[in-house]
Predict the 3D structure of the following.
Amino acid sequence: MQNEAVCPIPQRISLNHHIYRTGNVPDSLRHLILDISRAAKYIHYAIRNTEAGLAGTRNQFGEEQEKLDVLSDDIIRQHLCESRVVASYVSEEQSEAVELDPTAPYTVVFDPLDGSSLVDVNFAIGSIFGIYKGMHVIGSTPGDQVAALYVLYGPRTLLVYSVGNSVHEFILNEVGEFILLREFLGVADIAKNYSPGNLRAVNVNAGYRSLMDVWMKEEMTLRYSGCMVADVHHILSKGQGIFTNIGGGKYPLGKLRLVIECGPFAYLMEQAGGAASDGTQSILKKKIDSLDQRSPLIIGSKTEVKRVCKMLK
Ligand code: P6P
């Protein structure tokens, strides 16, 4: 252990220092998270300095790509390549897993810019990352992740990570460093806020419609932006809440992808004492059959997750 008399703990705690002090993880994982945080700084800059608009291309899901989707994907790819610790990566913007170095220790799954269609209305958007050991994600479960993190680009740019020792929040400061804002975030069992996605499902799912009635009758507070990163961060930041995106309408299994959206957030939420389910099983225990599989998601305060699963059965 380094002599702290010579290197006193600084007043402001950097992401690097925090992962080293709190994480108890291999240096390779610490450096990978730092490389991802460097990519996030470039995406932060790109959002503020690149004109929005469509790239004129579509991703593997047939969704029109924003210029910023493509640019963010390129920025992250570059930083993963330079890290020298990534065997392969899975991106929302790439139709297949991309192999980098089969001898490297980690696979990174990510949505480079979730909610990017909201850039032109100036809403908060985010990047989502999950990190697995080894080369292959198919056949694993999100519970096999060794780390997960997201970056929320809003009035402030925040990075929230876990390496298995709770959840910790950082803010990008004026000199471009992520410094500790809050550590050991916790989520209470009871929710007061609700964040209902894919609401079109109420037309084919009576349980979902009843749930909306119950939430309104109980005068819970609606908080929904249309960007999963912002809406789930709201739960982690406020310490309570429930977010749902379930099957129905044009999304029979819900709109969200298991690998790049549900999995990383399930890891983080459970690390904060919350829960994440697909309605019948924990997301962390759900087997990954394909990289693009979608999953219903009920995530947040544990007691509310249980109640919602019961109502939707
Ligand atoms: P709905 C954004 O495109 C996204 O993938 C998530 O960030 C968000 O929660 C969801 O789609 C929005 O879905 O049903 O509100 O259109």
In short: The first helix runs from residue 15 to 23.
